[in-house]
Amino acid sequence: MTTYQLHPIGTIHNNGEDMFITLSPEYIPALQALDGFSHLQVLWWFSDFDTKEARTVLETEQPYKNAPAVMGIFATRSPIRPNPIALTTAPVTYIDYENGVIHIAYMDANDNTPVLDIKPYTPSMDRIESPAVPAWCSHWPISQEESADFPWEDQFNF
C-alpha cells in the first residue's frame, strides 16, 4: 500500500465568538490574489476522530432520520472515515494578508483543527445547478444560506 504525507498549512480557530484560519508563516504568500472571492473551500483534518479504530469503520447505523437502516460511510458526512479528510465551503469575512489570517463566518470544525489546503470557490467549477439527492434528504435546504435557519438537530439520530 502506498502511503502519503500531509503537512498542515495552518490551523482553524473557533473560540465560540470568532472563527478564523491562521496560516503557517511560510504559506502566507499563497494568499495573493484571493481578493474578491466570497467563499473558500477548506480541506481540513478531522483530527479529533483520527484513531485506528475510527479508520476501520465502513458502515454505520442510520445516522439521519428517514435514511436507510445501514449506510456506507461514504454516503455520510461523518468525521469517522478511512481518511478523516473534511471539506467545507466557508464564507470569507476578512483576510489579513500581512499576518496570514483568514476570518470566516462559519465552519463546522473544532478549535485547533489542522488545515490541509485552501481553494477559492468558483461557481463555474464548484456549483451544480440541479444536483440529485436521495429521497430521505430531499427536504434539506438547497443552499448554505438556507441551512442557517434549518432545524438540523431534527435530522439526526444522535
TrEMBL record:
<protein>
    <submittedName>
        <fullName>SAM-dependent methyltransferase</fullName>
    </submittedName>
</protein>
<keyword id="KW-0489">Methyltransferase</keyword>
<dbReference type="InterPro" id="IPR040372">
    <property type="entry name" value="YaeB-like"/>
</dbReference>
<dbReference type="GO" id="GO:0008168">
    <property type="term" value="F:methyltransferase activity"/>
</dbReference>
<dbReference type="Pfam" id="PF01980">
    <property type="entry name" value="TrmO_N"/>
</dbReference>
<dbReference type="InterPro" id="IPR023370">
    <property type="entry name" value="TrmO-like_N"/>
</dbReference>
<feature type="domain" description="TsaA-like">
    <location>
        <begin position="6"/>
        <end position="130"/>
    </location>
</feature>
<keyword id="KW-0808">Transferase</keyword>
<dbReference type="InterPro" id="IPR036413">
    <property type="entry name" value="YaeB-like_sf"/>
</dbReference>
<keyword id="KW-0949">S-adenosyl-L-methionine</keyword>
<comment type="similarity">
    <text>Belongs to the tRNA methyltransferase O family.</text>
</comment>
<dbReference type="GO" id="GO:0032259">
    <property type="term" value="P:methylation"/>
</dbReference>
<dbReference type="InterPro" id="IPR036414">
    <property type="entry name" value="YaeB_N_sf"/>
</dbReference>
